[in-house]
Amino acid sequence: MTSLVFYFQVHQPYRLRRYTFFDIGAHDHYFDDAENARIVRRVADKCYLPMNALLLELVQRHEGRFRCAFSVSGTALSQMEEYAPAALESFQKLARTGCVEFLAETSHHSLSFLGDMEEFDAQVANQATRVEQLFGTRPTTFRNTELVVSNDIARRAEQLGFAAILGEGADHLLGWRSAHRVYRPEGCERLKILLRSYKLSDDIAFRFSNRGWSEWPLSAERFAEWVHALPPEDSLVGLFMDFETFGEHQWRETGIFKFMEHLPGALLRSSRVRFETPREVARYQDAVARLDVPYPVSWADAERDLTAWLGNQMQRAAHAALYSILADVRKAADLGRADLLERWRKLSTSDHVYYMCTKFFADGDVHKYFSPYASPHDAFITFMNVLDDLARRASGVVEQAEAAQATPAAPPSA
Amino acid sequence: MLGWEFPPHISGGLGTACFGLTQGLSDCGVEVLFVVPRAHGDEDTRFVRVLGANQIPVRERQLERALRDTLQTSVLAGSERVIEEQRRTLVFEAAAASARGEPQAQQALIRTLELLAVDSPLSPYEGEASYVERLRALREAGLAPAGDLDTLRAQAREAVESLARTLREGAQLREVAGNVEELLETLGPERTLQFSGAYGHDLMAEVARFALAVGEATRRESFDVIHAHDWMTYPAGLVAARWSGKPLVVHMHACEYDRSGEHVNPRIRDLEQLGLDGADRIVCVSHYTANVLRTRYHVDPARMRVVHNAVTHQEQAAVVHAEKTIPEPIVLFLGRVTFQKGPDYFLEAAARVIRVEPRVKFVISGSGDMLANMIERSARLGLARHVHFTGFLRGPEVERMYALADIYVMPSVSEPFGISPLEAMALDVPVIVSRQSGVSEILVNALKVDFWDVQEIANKILALLRYPALREQLSSEGREEVRRLRWDERARAVLKVYEEVLR
Question: Assign residue B202 a region: left if phi > 0, alpha if psi is -120 to 50, beta otherwise?
């Protein structure tokens, strides 16, 4: 049997507004509410609502034989609650079918596993609780930000009680081995890793509308043929992609919705194929071998590493500066300013350093497409200014409290 | 190739750019003969043969013909008075010849008359409406460029206004055209014309003499394409093209609107128009410039090609280590202190930075007609202790100044290209450039601002001062980026333009 696992990532960052040096200390209105609302509503209209309606129909049409999984970042959940509640309801409706699994991740789509493990644990726990509240089931599968996995991250996920983790089926990780098997990360006892089948995933996510591609236009039947032609030992095909593939990256006009509408039927025509969620795969399949992931591997760019987020000096400096103020922010939160910690967490979203990426800056490719800034340098300047303001506010709260402690209330003067 | 200056005798970026281009073309196997008004004999001739117009013997007999061609050139530039005088004389002489019973002379004179009258459908005595009417008639006859009526009307208005301006100014058109007697007087011992090679008061006359000498040179030199740099050489380019029948490429490094804002010198503007209209192809140093030529000179984008400037090997090799003599960070403005370069925006940004970071020193290097004003203004803004004026710097002083700077700002109001940020970047200095510059089109590792957004300029200066990672990112990546901007690549683009006109 071959288990097909569809997992869709849903994420929206809190984009920053133009925040100059002269705003530091003057006001703490960091986030571009209007722009964030506009984008979330647009994506809800073009992607979340129509695609969720289609997925619901597919679950019903195939009487539960079509299944899939989502991970929805906490920042996306919050923005849907605020700006597009109907979109959030459409996800909840899918959850109620019992055929759709919701995964755990860091609540703020952060790189906290590289910055501060205590914060990482807190963000994962917060997200797991929220997913349980909104979608009814405590998640047992973990997916880290941008699918970043290493032995250490996997081990931590196991310690936190997860049964499975998702990862990238990168060639340099697997060597001669197939991504279409279940593995156990080095150093783990029970945790299983489910890998992304990047070629088949990217056929849908990236190449679908590429007219220069020899397989264009791709039909559901053709795609199903490729899956049916896989060797029988291939027990798992991980089709992991951004949910925005449907309607945003690939516009409706490309036929992507029609493709998805027909795909489950075409795939199920072979009795050896079944749809499963990560939870089910982890439950029913054993790991065939160990997989050693000494260095973090992500699903980004050709390099599949962390250079899209921490590749240049600006990104590393911004990341370091962010975590350097965390201690003060935590203290401030303990002193009653939880709002400062929440702001800090919104800044911990990986998108902020992604906007500072200079890798393909000159070519104006995918990085630029997703950035609200004119240049990576502008992204850095804005982020650092905001961080400076937040640091001042946090340390102000801490210093005030310390001063109050040092000098106990003076007796009323005579 | 026709230019006004060539290293080492340069006063600005034009000579350097010309040198870089010839170097690149030479690498592409193109043989370049570079004609300047005055050759000094110590030019760098490794990649190019340099010919001074002061070395070209002019034959007296040719002077009249040359003058006529130059005059015709001035017709299009709107020099209607000379043409009218000339026309009256010729009509009178033709009548006289006819009266004397010399039909051949009469015919010759009438041919000359026709020659003088062709090329422009414009007459100074008609207004916009009749011009449009006549253009329409010409167009129907297949003689005028196609275009919608609104465009024609706009063009007509611009052309009529330009002409009216020229007439109103009552300019000494002889300065543009010269005349035979004066030119003969300037002939030196070897029957060559005299040139200063500078940009002095005599510039217009020198432009005309240059055209004559270059026209003369076309008879003895062999070449395939004429390539003229900036308006001073456009008349020469046109004369050379007419005499030789070879295609003309004009290169626009800076136009009159870049130099003077709205207060353009109409004669220079008209000579630019003339060159742009008469050229087979126009090479612009940026899309920014191409856009100015499209809107201000009505040049059809189909005839324009953008080739950005690059950096010569020498400029790249420059390694300057300047000891920091003061501990305070230095923010540098270096360039002519004129309207075009935006020194006032630099001061306004400085005032905003100083308010929060009084430790910073701002340096304005250069001279120009706004210098006194800037000094007074800095005092008025309370910046006297924070802003330093170095005056005009030359050669090694310039490089030393760059090397001392921590941030270089180019807040130009209108900059067709702007090579100076590249010089700063080559010396590891992070730069802030205005978006109203050609160089901002190609730079990646530079911070970009709108020149009028002084708050944002200040914000970026402060960000550079406070965030070392940003400085390091820009200086290390910037140096590499400048190293990749090479003239040989630009020369290949220019070569493509040559191939187009030779097809």
Answer: alpha
Tell the burial category of A234 from Cβ atoms under 10 Å away from its Cβ (0-12, 13-18, 19+): middle
- Which chain B residue has the Cα nearest residue A22? B459
In terms of pLDDT, which residue wins out, A4 or B299? Answer: A4
Ordered by start, the domain boundaries in chain A are: 2-291, 307-403
Identify which of A317, A358, A381 has the shortest CB distance to residue B477.
Answer: A358
Alpha helices in A136-207 (DSSP H): 151-159, 171-174, 198-205
- What residue ranges in B342-490 does DSSP mark as E strands? 361-365, 387-391, 407-410, 431-434, 447-449
Q: Does A360 contact chain B (CB < 8 Å)?
A: no
Among B417, B389, B412, B395, which Cα is nearest to B332's?
B389
Whole-number Cα distances in Å, A77 to A89, A105, A107, A114, A332: 11, 12, 9, 24, 25
**Residue with more model confidence, A367 or A37:** A37
**According to the model, what pLDDT value does residue B345 have?**
97
Residue with tokens 């002083």: B397
Question: Closest approach of chain B CAs to the CA of A331, in angstroms?
Answer: 25
Helix (H) or strand (E) holding A77: helix A74-83
Domains with residue ranges and CATH for chain B: 13-59+179-306 (3.40.50.2000), 60-173 (no CATH), 319-485 (3.40.50.2000)
User: What are the pLDDT digits (tens) for B40-98?
Assistant: 888 888 888 899 888 888 765 565 566 555 555 544 444 443 344 444 445 555 555 55
- Greater pLDDT, B61 or A388: A388
The average pLDDT across B470-488 equals 92
Other residues' Cβ atoms within 10 Å of the Cβ of residue B47: 18
Residue with tokens 């571009």: A32
ipTM: 0.81
Q: Is A101 a catalytic residue?
A: no
The DSSP symbol for A349 reads B
Q: How far is CA B35 from CA B52, B236, B311, B473, in A?
A: 6, 10, 22, 43
The pLDDT assigned to A411 comes to: 63
C-alpha dihedral over B463, A30, A13, A298, to 10 degrees?
30
Q: Do the beta carbons of residue A238 and residue A194 sit within 8 Å?
A: yes
- The CATH architecture assigned to A2-291 reads Alpha-Beta Barrel (3.20)
Q: How far is CA B400 from CA A113, B318, B335, B424, in A?
A: 47, 11, 14, 10
Whether chain B has a CB inside 8 Å of the CB on A363: the answer is: no
Q: Which member of B444, B466, B474 has the closest CB to residue A361?
A: B444
Q: Which residue is catalytic, options A101, A105, A119, A146? A: A146
Amino acid found at A104? A
Strands (E), B240-383: 248-252, 281-284, 304-306, 330-334, 361-365
Q: Which chain A residues are within 8 Å of B444, Cβ to Cβ? A: 358, 361-362, 375
State how far the Cα of A131 lies from the Cα of A109, in Å rounded to an integer: 14
The three-class DSSP label of residue B79 is coil
Residue A243 pLDDT grade (very low, low, confident, very high; cuts 50, 70, 90): very high
Q: How many CB atoms lie within 10 A of CB B168?
A: 9
Could A384 and B466 be called an inter-chain contact, meaning their C-beta atoms sit closer than 8 Å? yes
pLDDT digits (tens, 9 = 90+) for B113-153: 443 333 333 333 444 555 555 555 555 554 444 445 455 45
The pairing of beta strand B33-36 with beta strand B387-391: unpaired
Provide the Cα torsion B321, B324, B328, B330; round to 10°.
-30
Model confidence pLDDT, tens digit, residues B442-467? 999 999 999 999 999 999 999 999 99
Question: How confident is the model at residue B213, as a pLDDT?
Answer: 83
CB atoms within 10 A of CB B257: 21
Sign of CA dihedral B170, B171, B172, B176: negative
